[in-house]
Specification:
binds S-adenosylmethionine, 9 helices, Rossmann fold, 2 domains, alpha/beta, 306 residues
Protein backbone atom coordinates (compact mmCIF):
# COMPACT_ATOMS: atom_id res chain seq x y z
CA UNK A 1 0.00 0.00 0.00
CA UNK A 2 2.93 2.33 -0.53
CA UNK A 3 1.98 3.77 -3.92
CA UNK A 4 -1.48 4.96 -2.97
CA UNK A 5 -2.36 8.54 -3.89
CA UNK A 6 -2.42 11.22 -1.17
CA UNK A 7 -5.46 11.36 1.09
CA UNK A 8 -7.29 14.41 2.41
CA UNK A 9 -7.23 13.51 6.08
CA UNK A 10 -10.26 14.45 8.21
CA UNK A 11 -8.99 12.68 11.34
CA UNK A 12 -10.03 14.74 14.37
CA UNK A 13 -11.84 17.24 12.13
CA UNK A 14 -14.77 19.37 13.35
CA UNK A 15 -16.45 18.92 9.93
CA UNK A 16 -19.91 18.32 11.42
CA UNK A 17 -20.06 21.43 13.59
CA UNK A 18 -17.95 23.69 11.34
CA UNK A 19 -19.66 22.84 8.05
CA UNK A 20 -23.16 21.55 8.77
CA UNK A 21 -24.70 22.19 12.16
CA UNK A 22 -26.27 25.68 12.19
CA UNK A 23 -24.00 26.74 9.31
CA UNK A 24 -26.76 27.77 6.87
CA UNK A 25 -26.52 24.63 4.72
CA UNK A 26 -30.04 23.24 5.21
CA UNK A 27 -30.70 23.99 1.53
CA UNK A 28 -27.74 21.88 0.34
CA UNK A 29 -28.66 19.05 2.70
CA UNK A 30 -32.27 19.02 1.50
CA UNK A 31 -31.56 19.09 -2.23
CA UNK A 32 -28.91 16.37 -1.95
CA UNK A 33 -31.44 14.15 -0.20
CA UNK A 34 -34.01 14.84 -2.94
CA UNK A 35 -31.53 13.75 -5.62
CA UNK A 36 -30.40 10.72 -3.64
CA UNK A 37 -34.01 9.52 -3.15
CA UNK A 38 -34.62 9.88 -6.88
CA UNK A 39 -31.70 7.62 -7.73
CA UNK A 40 -31.25 5.10 -4.93
CA UNK A 41 -33.64 2.13 -4.78
CA UNK A 42 -35.37 2.52 -1.39
CA UNK A 43 -34.57 -1.01 -0.19
CA UNK A 44 -32.00 -3.69 -0.75
CA UNK A 45 -29.40 -5.97 0.79
CA UNK A 46 -25.91 -4.47 1.17
CA UNK A 47 -25.15 -0.76 0.82
CA UNK A 48 -21.89 1.09 1.30
CA UNK A 49 -21.47 4.83 1.63
CA UNK A 50 -17.94 5.74 0.61
CA UNK A 51 -16.63 8.72 2.56
CA UNK A 52 -19.64 8.66 4.87
CA UNK A 53 -18.08 11.10 7.33
CA UNK A 54 -20.19 11.49 10.49
CA UNK A 55 -23.14 9.69 8.88
CA UNK A 56 -25.09 12.79 7.81
CA UNK A 57 -27.09 10.79 5.24
CA UNK A 58 -27.34 7.51 7.17
CA UNK A 59 -31.08 7.85 7.78
CA UNK A 60 -31.63 7.61 4.00
CA UNK A 61 -30.61 3.93 4.11
CA UNK A 62 -33.26 2.51 6.44
CA UNK A 63 -34.54 0.09 3.76
CA UNK A 64 -31.20 -1.75 3.53
CA UNK A 65 -30.30 -4.89 5.47
CA UNK A 66 -26.61 -4.05 5.99
CA UNK A 67 -25.13 -0.59 5.68
CA UNK A 68 -21.39 0.04 5.71
CA UNK A 69 -20.32 3.55 6.62
CA UNK A 70 -16.80 3.71 5.19
CA UNK A 71 -14.43 6.60 5.81
CA UNK A 72 -10.76 7.36 6.29
CA UNK A 73 -11.50 9.28 9.49
CA UNK A 74 -11.96 7.15 12.59
CA UNK A 75 -13.10 10.16 14.60
CA UNK A 76 -15.94 11.02 12.16
CA UNK A 77 -17.04 7.37 12.14
CA UNK A 78 -17.12 7.46 15.95
CA UNK A 79 -19.47 10.44 15.70
CA UNK A 80 -21.70 8.44 13.33
CA UNK A 81 -21.61 5.52 15.73
CA UNK A 82 -22.59 7.77 18.64
CA UNK A 83 -25.82 8.86 16.99
CA UNK A 84 -26.70 5.54 15.31
CA UNK A 85 -25.56 3.24 18.09
CA UNK A 86 -28.85 1.40 18.51
CA UNK A 87 -29.14 0.37 14.88
CA UNK A 88 -27.37 -2.96 14.37
CA UNK A 89 -27.57 -2.71 10.57
CA UNK A 90 -24.74 -0.16 10.51
CA UNK A 91 -21.14 -1.33 10.22
CA UNK A 92 -18.37 1.22 10.75
CA UNK A 93 -15.26 0.70 8.66
CA UNK A 94 -12.18 2.92 8.57
CA UNK A 95 -9.94 2.61 5.54
CA UNK A 96 -8.69 4.11 2.32
CA UNK A 97 -10.95 3.97 -0.72
CA UNK A 98 -8.00 3.01 -2.94
CA UNK A 99 -7.65 -0.26 -0.95
CA UNK A 100 -11.14 -1.41 -0.02
CA UNK A 101 -11.27 -4.14 2.66
CA UNK A 102 -14.14 -6.09 1.11
CA UNK A 103 -14.56 -9.21 -0.99
CA UNK A 104 -15.37 -8.90 -4.70
CA UNK A 105 -19.00 -8.37 -5.73
CA UNK A 106 -20.30 -7.54 -2.24
CA UNK A 107 -22.40 -4.40 -2.55
CA UNK A 108 -25.81 -4.09 -4.19
CA UNK A 109 -25.73 -0.32 -3.73
CA UNK A 110 -22.89 2.17 -3.42
CA UNK A 111 -23.28 5.86 -2.60
CA UNK A 112 -20.64 8.57 -2.76
CA UNK A 113 -21.57 12.19 -2.04
CA UNK A 114 -19.32 15.23 -1.49
CA UNK A 115 -16.17 13.12 -1.48
CA UNK A 116 -14.93 12.64 -5.04
CA UNK A 117 -13.48 16.15 -4.94
CA UNK A 118 -10.80 14.70 -2.61
CA UNK A 119 -9.81 11.94 -5.07
CA UNK A 120 -6.41 12.65 -6.59
CA UNK A 121 -6.82 9.44 -8.62
CA UNK A 122 -10.51 8.99 -9.45
CA UNK A 123 -9.86 6.15 -11.98
CA UNK A 124 -8.05 4.11 -9.27
CA UNK A 125 -11.01 4.64 -6.94
CA UNK A 126 -13.52 3.59 -9.64
CA UNK A 127 -11.44 0.45 -10.29
CA UNK A 128 -11.74 -0.55 -6.62
CA UNK A 129 -15.47 0.19 -6.64
CA UNK A 130 -15.97 -1.92 -9.77
CA UNK A 131 -14.34 -4.81 -7.90
CA UNK A 132 -16.63 -4.66 -4.85
CA UNK A 133 -19.80 -3.88 -6.87
CA UNK A 134 -22.38 -6.66 -7.21
CA UNK A 135 -23.50 -7.13 -10.82
CA UNK A 136 -27.00 -5.70 -11.26
CA UNK A 137 -26.47 -3.07 -8.56
CA UNK A 138 -26.43 0.72 -8.43
CA UNK A 139 -23.68 3.26 -7.82
CA UNK A 140 -24.92 6.79 -7.04
CA UNK A 141 -22.09 9.27 -7.43
CA UNK A 142 -22.11 12.99 -6.71
CA UNK A 143 -19.22 15.08 -7.97
CA UNK A 144 -18.21 18.73 -8.09
CA UNK A 145 -18.87 20.02 -11.60
CA UNK A 146 -16.14 22.19 -13.11
CA UNK A 147 -18.43 23.25 -15.98
CA UNK A 148 -20.90 25.14 -13.77
CA UNK A 149 -22.39 28.50 -14.65
CA UNK A 150 -20.32 30.48 -12.14
CA UNK A 151 -17.05 28.95 -13.38
CA UNK A 152 -18.01 29.69 -16.99
CA UNK A 153 -18.82 33.33 -16.17
CA UNK A 154 -15.63 33.79 -14.16
CA UNK A 155 -13.58 32.24 -16.97
CA UNK A 156 -15.31 34.46 -19.55
CA UNK A 157 -14.57 37.57 -17.46
CA UNK A 158 -10.95 36.41 -17.04
CA UNK A 159 -11.32 36.13 -13.28
CA UNK A 160 -10.39 32.46 -13.33
CA UNK A 161 -7.32 30.98 -14.99
CA UNK A 162 -8.52 27.40 -15.60
CA UNK A 163 -10.98 26.55 -18.32
CA UNK A 164 -14.26 24.91 -17.23
CA UNK A 165 -14.41 23.33 -20.72
CA UNK A 166 -11.14 21.40 -20.49
CA UNK A 167 -11.76 17.71 -19.82
CA UNK A 168 -9.14 17.01 -17.15
CA UNK A 169 -9.89 17.58 -13.43
CA UNK A 170 -8.77 20.88 -11.93
CA UNK A 171 -7.16 21.00 -8.49
CA UNK A 172 -8.40 24.42 -7.38
CA UNK A 173 -6.98 23.95 -3.85
CA UNK A 174 -4.71 21.24 -2.44
CA UNK A 175 -6.54 17.88 -2.75
CA UNK A 176 -9.76 19.58 -3.90
CA UNK A 177 -10.80 18.77 -7.46
CA UNK A 178 -13.61 19.81 -9.79
CA UNK A 179 -14.51 17.43 -12.63
CA UNK A 180 -15.89 17.66 -16.14
CA UNK A 181 -19.09 15.55 -16.47
CA UNK A 182 -17.87 13.93 -19.69
CA UNK A 183 -14.50 13.02 -18.19
CA UNK A 184 -16.33 11.38 -15.27
CA UNK A 185 -18.50 9.36 -17.68
CA UNK A 186 -15.41 8.21 -19.60
CA UNK A 187 -13.59 7.08 -16.47
CA UNK A 188 -16.64 5.24 -15.14
CA UNK A 189 -17.19 3.50 -18.48
CA UNK A 190 -13.54 2.49 -18.63
CA UNK A 191 -14.08 0.57 -15.36
CA UNK A 192 -17.24 -1.14 -16.62
CA UNK A 193 -19.89 1.09 -15.03
CA UNK A 194 -22.79 2.28 -17.18
CA UNK A 195 -23.50 5.93 -16.36
CA UNK A 196 -27.14 6.77 -16.94
CA UNK A 197 -29.48 9.39 -15.52
CA UNK A 198 -27.97 12.66 -14.32
CA UNK A 199 -29.41 15.23 -11.92
CA UNK A 200 -27.92 18.66 -11.35
CA UNK A 201 -28.11 19.84 -7.77
CA UNK A 202 -27.66 23.03 -5.73
CA UNK A 203 -28.54 25.50 -8.50
CA UNK A 204 -29.27 28.17 -5.88
CA UNK A 205 -26.14 27.77 -3.75
CA UNK A 206 -25.70 31.53 -3.65
CA UNK A 207 -25.21 33.29 -0.31
CA UNK A 208 -27.62 36.22 -0.70
CA UNK A 209 -30.35 34.05 -2.28
CA UNK A 210 -30.17 31.60 0.60
CA UNK A 211 -30.46 34.47 3.06
CA UNK A 212 -33.40 36.12 1.25
CA UNK A 213 -35.56 33.21 0.10
CA UNK A 214 -37.13 30.57 2.33
CA UNK A 215 -35.16 27.31 2.25
CA UNK A 216 -38.28 25.30 1.38
CA UNK A 217 -38.93 27.44 -1.70
CA UNK A 218 -35.34 27.17 -2.95
CA UNK A 219 -35.39 23.43 -2.37
CA UNK A 220 -38.61 23.06 -4.38
CA UNK A 221 -37.18 25.11 -7.25
CA UNK A 222 -33.97 23.09 -7.19
CA UNK A 223 -36.00 19.90 -7.14
CA UNK A 224 -37.55 20.96 -10.48
CA UNK A 225 -34.27 22.20 -11.95
CA UNK A 226 -32.56 18.89 -11.10
CA UNK A 227 -34.32 17.21 -14.05
CA UNK A 228 -32.39 19.39 -16.52
CA UNK A 229 -29.24 17.46 -15.60
CA UNK A 230 -29.64 15.00 -18.45
CA UNK A 231 -29.32 17.81 -21.00
CA UNK A 232 -27.03 20.42 -19.48
CA UNK A 233 -25.10 20.78 -16.24
CA UNK A 234 -24.92 24.36 -14.99
CA UNK A 235 -25.08 23.60 -11.25
CA UNK A 236 -21.99 23.09 -9.05
CA UNK A 237 -23.01 19.57 -8.09
CA UNK A 238 -23.98 16.62 -10.32
CA UNK A 239 -25.47 13.27 -9.32
CA UNK A 240 -25.05 10.39 -11.76
CA UNK A 241 -26.70 6.98 -11.52
CA UNK A 242 -24.47 4.14 -12.69
CA UNK A 243 -25.41 0.56 -13.32
CA UNK A 244 -22.75 -1.72 -11.85
CA UNK A 245 -20.44 -3.56 -14.27
CA UNK A 246 -22.19 -6.58 -15.77
CA UNK A 247 -19.05 -8.67 -15.67
CA UNK A 248 -17.83 -9.86 -12.33
CA UNK A 249 -18.80 -12.09 -9.45
CA UNK A 250 -21.39 -11.85 -6.72
CA UNK A 251 -19.87 -12.38 -3.28
CA UNK A 252 -20.63 -15.78 -1.77
CA UNK A 253 -22.64 -15.65 1.44
CA UNK A 254 -20.70 -15.51 4.72
CA UNK A 255 -17.82 -13.63 3.13
CA UNK A 256 -17.56 -9.92 3.74
CA UNK A 257 -14.20 -8.42 4.66
CA UNK A 258 -11.04 -9.01 2.65
CA UNK A 259 -7.48 -8.03 3.41
CA UNK A 260 -7.03 -4.57 1.83
CA UNK A 261 -3.46 -5.47 0.89
CA UNK A 262 -3.80 -8.88 -0.81
CA UNK A 263 -7.64 -9.20 -1.04
CA UNK A 264 -7.76 -12.61 0.68
CA UNK A 265 -11.19 -13.03 2.34
CA UNK A 266 -10.94 -12.60 6.10
CA UNK A 267 -12.51 -14.95 8.67
CA UNK A 268 -14.01 -14.21 12.07
CA UNK A 269 -12.82 -11.57 14.53
CA UNK A 270 -10.59 -13.12 17.20
CA UNK A 271 -9.19 -11.22 20.16
CA UNK A 272 -10.20 -7.92 18.62
CA UNK A 273 -8.49 -8.52 15.33
CA UNK A 274 -8.99 -9.87 11.82
CA UNK A 275 -6.02 -11.85 10.54
CA UNK A 276 -5.14 -12.44 6.89
CA UNK A 277 -4.66 -16.18 6.35
CA UNK A 278 -2.47 -15.68 3.28
CA UNK A 279 1.01 -16.81 4.46
CA UNK A 280 2.67 -14.32 2.09
CA UNK A 281 0.75 -11.48 3.72
CA UNK A 282 -0.33 -12.32 7.28
CA UNK A 283 -1.36 -8.78 8.14
CA UNK A 284 -3.74 -8.20 11.03
CA UNK A 285 -6.39 -5.52 11.43
CA UNK A 286 -7.85 -4.02 14.59
CA UNK A 287 -11.52 -4.23 15.55
CA UNK A 288 -12.25 -2.00 18.50
CA UNK A 289 -15.60 -0.97 20.04
CA UNK A 290 -17.47 -1.78 16.85
CA UNK A 291 -15.03 -0.02 14.50
CA UNK A 292 -13.27 -2.15 11.87
CA UNK A 293 -9.98 -0.38 11.34
CA UNK A 294 -8.18 -1.00 8.04
CA UNK A 295 -6.22 2.25 7.95
CA UNK A 296 -3.00 0.49 8.82
CA UNK A 297 -2.18 -3.06 9.89
CA UNK A 298 -1.35 -3.87 13.50
CA UNK A 299 2.40 -3.59 14.03
CA UNK A 300 3.10 -7.19 14.98
CA UNK A 301 6.78 -6.64 15.77
CA UNK A 302 5.81 -4.27 18.59
CA UNK A 303 3.43 -6.89 20.01
CA UNK A 304 6.15 -9.56 20.04
CA UNK A 305 8.68 -7.22 21.66
CA UNK A 306 6.47 -6.08 24.53
C1 LIG B 1 -16.51 16.59 2.69
S1 LIG B 1 -16.58 15.12 3.64
C2 LIG B 1 -18.17 14.46 3.16
C3 LIG B 1 -18.78 13.51 4.16
C4 LIG B 1 -20.17 12.97 3.76
N1 LIG B 1 -20.15 12.29 2.49
C5 LIG B 1 -21.19 14.08 3.74
O1 LIG B 1 -21.63 14.47 2.65
O2 LIG B 1 -21.55 14.55 4.83
C6 LIG B 1 -15.43 14.09 2.74
C7 LIG B 1 -15.20 12.74 3.42
O3 LIG B 1 -14.38 11.93 2.55
C8 LIG B 1 -13.50 11.18 3.36
N2 LIG B 1 -12.34 10.73 2.57
C9 LIG B 1 -11.45 11.52 1.91
N3 LIG B 1 -10.51 10.76 1.33
C10 LIG B 1 -10.81 9.46 1.61
C11 LIG B 1 -10.19 8.22 1.29
N4 LIG B 1 -9.08 8.14 0.55
N5 LIG B 1 -10.78 7.08 1.75
C12 LIG B 1 -11.91 7.14 2.51
N6 LIG B 1 -12.52 8.30 2.85
C13 LIG B 1 -11.98 9.45 2.41
C14 LIG B 1 -13.12 12.16 4.47
O4 LIG B 1 -12.59 11.49 5.59
C15 LIG B 1 -14.44 12.88 4.73
O5 LIG B 1 -15.19 12.27 5.76
Amino acid sequence: MTDTPPVCDYEGSDYRTRFWENQGRDYEDRVERIALRRMLPPAGTTLIEIGAGFGRLANEYTGYEKVVLFDYSRSLLREAQAHLADDARFIYVAGNWYNMPFVDGLFAAMVQIRTLHHAADAPALFRELARIAQPGGHYILEFANKQNLKAMLRFGLKRQSWSPFAREPVEFAALNFDFHPRWIDEQLQAMGFAPGRRLTVSHFRIGFLKRLAPTGLLARLDSLAQWTGNWWQLAPSVFVHNAHPKQGVTAVSHTFFACPTCKTPLGEVENGRLACANPDCGQQWRVENGLYDFKEPIDQSSIINH
